[in-house]
Amino acid sequence: MKLILAIVQDKDANILSNEFIDANIRATKLSTTGGFLRSGNTTFIVGVEDDRVEEVLELIKQTSHARQQFMTPPANLDPMGDSSMPYPIEVQVGGATVFVMPVDQFHHF
Amino acid sequence: MKLILAIVQDKDANILSNEFIDANIRATKLSTTGGFLRSGNTTFIVGVEDDRVEEVLELIKQTSHARQQFMTPPANLDPMGDSSMPYPIEVQVGGATVFVMPVDQFHHF
Amino acid sequence: MKLILAIVQDKDANILSNEFIDANIRATKLSTTGGFLRSGNTTFIVGVEDDRVEEVLELIKQTSHARQQFMTPPANLDPMGDSSMPYPIEVQVGGATVFVMPVDQFHHF
Ligand code: NI
Ligand code: NI
Ligand code: NI
């Protein structure tokens, strides 16, 4: 048995939750504070048998890895009143921090 | 020293908190998100000496184990306008997922 | 790699967060429930290399240790209508509970 603690971006949390449900992996979601420190993240606690650790890591990696994305800024952000259309900029989204931890005992009451 | 992570139903959390206080066991409660994934759960972090692990597990088991409960549905849920009284149905409540984890160092500053 | 779980008072959480940022230590903050059980606390999850554990512990100790503080109660708490000024009383603030835990695998996707 291992406990996997996964911290992902809020925007990836719903998809990851659904992947866990599809794979019949029980996960608990902790709310993280909005705020100055890594705000907008969701923490998952997942308990799995040792032989499913790789599967869980793969799900997290696939749904939540850091990647570049094009985003079009809203037009009214232009401070000069320039009438040209805004163009898409590339931003990094996603990214997951994952700890796999040993477990001495697991119980389900 | 062990860290016990216990995920219980919200409806059992208050009683369990009081049991911990009565037993002089220090517990920290984390809020879980309302939502689609195991919503309505509360996560406790409990730090205890090895020789009190069994006692903590027993408290969690006694207050939070899965059990059947009779619940009477509200009368106005009957879509047919039937005037008969609603009868109690049996539902499962409670249930706890518990991890006992090794601790390298414990500090209280 | 170690996972450090630190539970500190809310009033010390902002300063500790800033210390972590200054030291380039990545921390995730979990909200704790307001309520009857150790309310007003914040839980940090910090992942660090073994050789930085002492540094993290020292930051937590310095910013969040229990200490005595003088606090002046508000004047309108006097039930006798006594017109004398309230005098400062000494209260304990702060205090941190810290677990250093082993980690089998650490990933950053
Ligand atoms: Ni991709
Ligand atoms: Ni029972
Ligand atoms: Ni001091």
From TrEMBL, chains A, B, C:
InterPro entries: CdAMP_rec, N-reg_PII-like_a/b, N-reg_PII/ATP_PRibTrfase_C. Coiled coil: none annotated. It holds the Pfam family CdAMP_rec. This is Cyclic-di-AMP receptor. It comes from Lapidilactobacillus achengensis. Keywords: Receptor. It comes from the Bacteria.
